[in-house]
TrEMBL record:
SUPFAM superfamilies: Acyl-CoA dehydrogenase C-terminal domain-like, Acyl-CoA dehydrogenase NM domain-like. This is SfnB family sulfur acquisition oxidoreductase. Pfam families: Acyl-CoA_dh_2, Acyl-CoA_dh_N. CDD domains: DszC (cd01163). It comes from Mesorhizobium cantuariense.
Length: 415
């Protein structure tokens, strides 16, 4: 297995910020263009994906191409100059990119989720200001989760009021995208315990991003520790994120559907790798009575089964996107719960097929597929790491409570 070479005790004390884009990002016209651009980018991203994973090379040029392509603003409302495309399209875009390089697909997740939250909770002036940033190609990273808390939604990071700005203090981890972000939304509590997004400039004094992500999978998600030491954030960039969860909104389902799309992308990549290997490198089994590995009846059955299960997950992913579209337009307890439920169903199937396809790859392709030169274990490592984001066993609980007892899912970013 290829493992991370990062030594956390020797990680850089601070990674310097990157420059903002000098030219505005492209604005997508419609859903078809978004899919076409995603496919074109994926064709380039896949070329060095294995090397980036093996050597833990940051996808700098790839990320610039991705965010400048217009795909990072596809959920900006039309009223503010954005495309406002369907969340079914957004999910398909993330799946396509993730099939090429799932780390790059994951990096966009929190940016798109924050854009959605701004639409839900910000006033028009703040929306105009922050949506303009997204349309210019500005990348939002994230500093949400904390390493030592008892539960994922427990936060110790806080801010204090200082007139026209707030001062934020805390420490974060699992900060996907923060290393090469231009703005870093920090989840911080006010004096009433309410969670806000304090969107800090990546180069703000006191904001330190450390390159110490050492997971065996999703190795180039540009994550790590974020230290927040008296960081000043203007109130224009203080977003009341808690409002997205104190009443029914689609915000949680939006964060979740992007997770689903990353996993269906990983599954697609694994199945494609299996087919390619079996067709070009694998040998027929001694007792099969056939000359070619691709004529093995058990391999044929297994590929059919994996593909069927992936298609089922993709169908639910599209259904979830359309349900989210309805919940965004008309956020009621019923529409939001429906979006959450369909997304949870998709999350279950996407997790199961991502793990199954990345594991089955080696069984069907044979011993030769485990050679380090192929680095095919990256798909299993990525699937195993990313599907841990929130446990599927709790998705079954959500579904059972909903269908048996009529209990709507909880309102938070993991549901």
């Amino acid at each position: 297995m290829t493992v991370s070479t990062v030594k956390t005790d020797q990680a850089s004390a601070a990674v310097p910020p990157v420059a903002r884009p000098t030219a505005p990002a492209h604005i997508i016209r419609d859903d078809a263009e978004a899919i076409a651009i995603a496919r074109a980018l994926a064709a380039e991203f896949v070329k060095d994906a294995s090397r980036r994973d093996r050597e833990r090379i940051w996808p700098v040029a790839e990320l610039d191409a991705f965010s400048q392509s217009g795909l990072w603003s596809i959920n900006v409302p039309r009223a503010f100059g954005g495309p406002e495309l369907s969340y079914a399209t957004l999910a398909k875009v993330i799946e396509i990119i993730s099939a090429a390089d799932s780390s790059i697909g994951q990096i966009a997740q929190n940016h798109l989720g924050v854009v959605a939250a701004i639409r839900t909770v910000s006033d028009p002036d703040q929306q105009k200001l922050l949506f303009a940033e997204a349309l210019k190609g500005t990348r939002f990273g994230n500093a949400f989760s904390e390493f030592g808390s008892k539960r994922a939604a427990d936060f110790e990071t806080r801010f204090t009021d200082a007139g026209d700005h707030v001062v934020v203090n805390g420490r974060k981890f699992y900060s996907s995208g923060a290393l090469l972000a231009h703005l870093v939304p920090i989840v911080a509590l006010d004096d009433q315990g309410r969670a806000w997004y304090a969107i800090a400039d990546r180069g703000a004094p006191g904001l330190t991003v450390i390159d110490d992500w050492s997971s065996f999978g999703q190795r180039t998600t540009l994550s790590g520790t974020v230290i927040i030491d008296n960081v000043k954030v203007p109130k224009t960039h203080l977003v009341p994120g808690y409002k997205g969860y104190d009443k029914p909104t689609a915000d949680g389902a939006i964060f979740q559907i992007i997770q689903v799309a990353v996993d269906t992308g990983i599954a697609q990549a694994a199945i494609d790798e299996t087919v390619s290997f079996v067709r070009t490198k694998s040998r027929a089994w001694i007792d099969s009575g056939v000359d070619n590995a691709w004529d093995d009846p058990y391999t044929i059955q297994a590929i059919g089964d994996l593909t069927l299960r992936l298609h089922a997950a993709q169908a639910l992913l599209e259904k979830a996107g359309l349900a989210i579209d309805r919940a965004v337009i008309e956020p009621t307890a019923e529409t939001v719960a429906h979006a959450q439920i369909v997304t949870a169903e998709a999350k279950i199937l996407s997790t199961e097929i991502a793990i199954a396809a990345t594991n089955k790859l080696f069984e069907l392709a044979g011993t030769r597929s485990t050679l380090a030169e192929h680095n095919l274990d990256r798909h299993w490592r990525n699937a195993r790491t990313h599907t841990l984001h929130d446990p599927v066993r709790w998705k079954y609980s959500i579904l059972g409570k909903y269908f048996l007892n009529g209990e709507n899912p909880p309102l938070h970013a993991w549901s």
